[in-house]
Amino acid sequence: RTSEPWRDFDRSQVYTADLESSLHYLLRVELAAHGMLEGAELKVFKDFVTLVAKLYPVGGSVVKLMETLSDWLLSLPLQQIPYQAVLDLVDNKMKISGAFLGAELRWVGCQGSRPGLRGYPCSLWTLFHVLTVQHDATPTALDGSGLEGEAAPVLQVMRRYIRTFFGCKECGRHFEQAAAANMDQVTSREDEILWLWNQHNRVNTRLAGSLSDDPVSPKAPWPSPALCPACHEESNGVHVWNHANVLAFLRHHYGASNLNPRYSL
Ligand code: FAD
Predict the structure, then answer these.
(1) Does residue 170 have its Cβ closer than 6 Å to ligand 1?
(2) β-strand 80-82 against 232-235: which pairing, if any?
(3) Are the beta carbons of 31 and 69 closer than 8 angstroms?
(4) What are phi and psi of 143, to 5 degrees?
(5) All domains of the chain in start order, with CATH
(6) ipTM above threshold 0.95
(7) DSSP E strand stretches across 122-246
(8) Alpha-carbon distance 106 to 17, whole Å?
(9) Which of 62, 63, 185, 216 is deepest in the core (most CB within 10 A)?
(10) How many whole angstroms from 204 Cα to the centroid of ligand 1?
(11) Structure confidence by residue, pLDDT tens digits, 66-86
(12) If you average pLDDT over residues 53-67, what whole number do you get?
């Protein structure tokens, strides 16, 4: 990994290569720790796949694969599915034309300056920020999916995924604590976007200066004044966020038109 060439990137954009790498890692590495998916776990996985199939912001082979996986999971009357069967589908052993998920990690905006830094957790945050913004941009996309009845479907599916499958168990406990405190107060798509932004900043603040902090991409309140000057204000000498401008910035930053396909397969 050390010999991998550095990929130049623009911090004001989001890279589809990071989103694709997150799905590759999630489906082929993280999930592989579960030999059999059953019961509540299986339901959490199905909901995650449905969410991504409905809200992935770019058309093409990745969304086709997620739709195929979602249709297949929903059509199976089984209470148990061996992980190997999921993997066969992800590797497209059924030869469905146009469905494909690359089998390598290509971190771009989530590159670490050394192995072990950034990568998958960065891409998972990125993926869920993108999904909150896409849910807001396409409010009817989840109709008929079984998720449309939840007040904050993207956050709730994220919460259940992180709790059940995320390899970092300590992260899962922290996130569950935060979700239990006030996620049920989120009832609009705008608040879904802002809740995740705020929670992510709380984590950044907690982890600033810790071992996982990459000196090339230090953890700090985000977006920086350089990325979004209008997000920052001062009131009586104290920094305050301008929430309306933060929302507008997040809609733009994580929106479909700001996705950069460079380095994607
Ligand atoms: P990340 O924090 O992963 O951020 C990725 C990118 O998102 C940034 O480069 C930036 O472009 C953008 N971004 C940054 N802040 C925001 C924001 N507020 N809103 C929107 N976009 C933003 N690690 C721990 O050690 N302890 C934990 O408890 C912990 N909890 C976690 C919980 C979750 C749900 C996840 C997904 C990860 C958690 N992690 C935790 C991992 C940690 O948060 C980082 O993901 C990891 O250390 C990599 O950091 P990073 O520098 O790549 O930036």
Answers:
(1) yes
(2) unpaired
(3) no
(4) -55, 135
(5) 14-260 (1.20.120.310)
(6) yes
(7) 232-235, 238-241
(8) 6
(9) 62
(10) 6
(11) 999 999 999 988 889 999 999
(12) 97
